[in-house]
Amino acid sequence: MGTKVNQKEKLSEEHEAPLKGTWISVGVVGAVILATYILLYGLYMARF
């Protein structure tokens, strides 16, 4: 029974660590989408 408790604690620790990287990746993707939108909007407004 003791091993199951230790495994659950280990899994919870391993699960929390990748969340930081996930949010960084989400932020980078969001920033790229936003920059692309602003660039395309700027090009659209600058057309003759």
Automatic annotation (TrEMBL):
Keywords: Membrane, Transmembrane, Transmembrane helix. The chain crosses the membrane at residues 23-44. This is Cytochrome c oxidase subunit 2A. It comes from Fredinandcohnia quinoae.
